[in-house]
Structure formats: structure tokens, C-alpha cells
Design brief:
It contains 3 helices and 15 strands. It has about 240 residues and is of the alpha+beta class. The chain has 2 domains: about 5-125 and about 205-235, no CATH class; about 130-200, no CATH class. A 5-stranded antiparallel beta sheet has the order 5-6-7-13-8. The protein is globular, with a radius of gyration of 22 Å.
Length: about 240
């Protein structure tokens, strides 16, 4: 066999072996206790066992059990969000700064973006309950259906919005008359009204949508989805 091929195969084998050994040094339990959040399971884990999940929650081991639980998202290492609860594969977090904007009816609320974690071979992430807000110049006079609302009490722009995204039909196309506007997806509760401060909220539900490969890997409870040293998908056994 070609020596180069043998060497490449050996490197791949050793990298996978190192991955398995490092994981086995901290074997992954079927669940972890996380204070008031109760028992959390994959894809969630604790910061003490980050290799056991996709999103790690800080403060699970702190006493008393009611102590705050937080999580960091995206590439930011400075912004932490309070974890409110977990339902299956959806984690609900609170954006405290957004809460202040909404409480004070500050239009900065319509520019407050939460960066979700990047899609990986393991999973993608979705802001589960949201609405698309269009921020437009005051001079714009778009032609819109009666399903759209306009709010013009912001000094820098008018905003337009339709129903929450969960209520829009598959293949829905946004009006071309809004093409020049900037957009943002914001967390929402209930139906849209003429006053966006009534339904835009600071509680964000982030759903973890596992990849097909990860779902197949989890069919066997002895296997777990991991990324190797090159960031590629790897189904590890016995951890």
C-alpha cells in the first residue's frame, strides 16, 4: 500500500482515538441536573461537560439550585443570556437589555439582534417564535395588503410588519415595495397589532434542529454526535 495513504489513514485513526479518549475521561451521563431547570439532556449540557452537548449552560452546579443559569450564543464571549426553561430541544432565554428597551418603549428594541450559534454538521438553530420587522425611511410609501401594520413613532425610520412568521404560508414572498428596507427577526408572543410594543418580547425560544446524521447517530443510546479536530461530524460510541 502507498506509504502516503498509510500515513494519512494512521493520522485519521489517531485523531479519532484521541477524541474518544478525551471524551471517555469525562463520560457523558444520560442527563445532567441543572438546578431549577431540572434534568437537561442532549443537545443541552453543562459547562463542566461541554463535550456532552451542543449548547452548554453555566451555573448548573451552583447553589442554591435557584441561582441564575446563563448561556452564551454565537461567537460573542461577553454576552450572557438568562436561561428561563427548556422544553425538549427548545431553550428559552431572556434578553435583559431588550426587556429594558421594550419597557421604556425605546425604538432601539427594533434593532436589537441576537446572534444565534453558527450552523454546524451537528445542528442548526432557529428563533422559533418571531416576526420580521422592516425598518424603512420615512419617505417610503410602500403598497401593502391589509395584513401589514405600520408604526411611525420612531424618529429614525418607520417600521412595517405582517403576521408572525409562524403564521405565514410556505413560499410566502415579502412585498417587493419593502426591498429597500432593512430587516430583523424579533421574538414575538401572540398576533401582531398596531402597537409593536404589545407583542414583541424579550423572551427568545431557540430550537436546536439536529442534522440527519446526528439524528441517526442518536438512534443508538450508546452513540453521541461530536465534531472531530477538523470540525467534521463524527459519531462516537461508548461515551
Amino acid at each position: 500500500m502507498d506509504r502516503v495513504l498509510v500515513l494519512k489513514s494512521l493520522i485519521v485513526f489517531l485523531s479519532q482515538l484521541i477524541l474518544i479518549v478525551s471524551a471517555q475521561n469525562g463520560r457523558c451521563p444520560p442527563y445532567s441536573d441543572c438546578g431549577v431547570l431540572g434534568r437537561i439532556r442532549f443537545p443541552f449540557t453543562t459547562t463542566e461537560q461541554q463535550h456532552c452537548g451542543i449548547l452548554a449552560i453555566h451555573g448548573c452546579q451552583q447553589l442554591p439550585p435557584s441561582s441564575p443559569k446563563t448561556i452564551k450564543l454565537g461567537t460573542s464571549t461577553s454576552t450572557s443570556y438568562s436561561v428561563l426553561r427548556i422544553e425538549s430541544r427548545t431553550i428559552f432565554i431572556s434578553d435583559d437589555e431588550q426587556e429594558r428597551y421594550l419597557r421604556n418603549r425605546n425604538c432601539k428594541a427594533f434593532s436589537k439582534n441576537v446572534t444565534l450559534p453558527h450552523t454546524s454538521p451537528l445542528a442548526s438553530f432557529v428563533n422559533k417564535y418571531n416576526i420580521t420587522i422592516f425598518r424603512c425611511n420615512h419617505s417610503l410609501k410602500p403598497s401593502l395588503s391589509k395584513d401589514f401594520h405600520k408604526y411611525s413613532n420612531c424618529s429614525e425610520y418607520d417600521i412595517f410588519y405582517g403576521p408572525p412568521n409562524i403564521l405565514t404560508p410556505p413560499g410566502f414572498q415579502w412585498p417587493s415595495s419593502l426591498a429597500s428596507c432593512s430587516t430583523i427577526q424579533l421574538a414575538v408572543e401572540g398576533n401582531s397589532t398596531d402597537d409593536p410594543f404589545q407583542f414583541v418580547i424579550s423572551t427568545i425560544g431557540i430550537e436546536v434542529q439536529l442534522s440527519n446524521e446526528c439524528e441517526s447517530c442518536l438512534d443508538d443510546e450508546k452513540e453521541r454526535c461530536l465534531l472531530d479536530t477538523e470540525g467534521k461530524f463524527y459519531c462516537a460510541t461508548g461515551i
